[in-house]
Amino acid sequence: MGYGKGTLLLPAEGEVLEFSKSMAPRVANRVETDQIMVDGLGIGDVGDVVLRDRKTLAKEGIMVIVVPVEATTGKVTADPDIISRGFIYMKESGNLVEQVKRIVTHSLSLKKGRIHEWHFMRRSIEEDVAKFLFKATGRRPLIVPVLVEV
User: Fold this and answer.
1) Interatomic CA distance for residues 39 and 45, integer angstroms
2) Helix (H, G, I), strand (E, B) or coil at 63
3) What CA–CA distance (Å, rounded) separates 41 from 61?
4) Could you give the CA distance from residue 104 to residue 15 in angstroms, rounded to a whole number?
């Protein structure tokens, strides 16, 4: 824009600029700074796990697996429902989705005695599906298993 190097002031992080009518703007001081994460209305409350998940979502996408389970018996009452965002296009990936459904059903059938241990079951589904998807696609989407008691 026609300004020479001597007329520009490009401060580095932590440098305090001083402006006055009697002298040219200058770097007057330096202060120590830390990174602060701003998330909506919250400042500094975004943890490492949240940031890691957001990076995974942006890079690899997400797959949500909803499994309806009978509350009293622990039996799966219907096929799992698969929802994908940013990972695969569902209409063109029917075969992959069907394979994931089979893996989930198989994973649950192997754990019949522990079906009421919801955390264990979610972790088991997540691990089994993650292995399969990485082999099939070379990608590692965020996998969110949801067991719904019906």
Assistant:
1) 8
2) strand
3) 25
4) 55
Q: What is the CATH number of domain 61-149?
A: 3.10.20.580
Burial class (CB in 10 A: 0-12, 13-18, 19+), 135: exposed
Residues 129, 143: contact at Cβ < 8 Å? yes
The number of beta carbons lying within 10 Å of the beta carbon of residue 129 is 23
Nearest to 55 by CA among 140, 144, 124: 140
CA 94, CA 98: separation in Å to the nearest integer?
A: 6
d(C-alpha 93, C-alpha 16), whole Å: 55
The domain locations on the chain are 61-149
pLDDT digit string, tens, across residues 35-52: 776 666 666 666 778 788
Interval 92-133: pLDDT, tens: 888 999 999 999 988 887 665 555 577 888 898 999 999 999
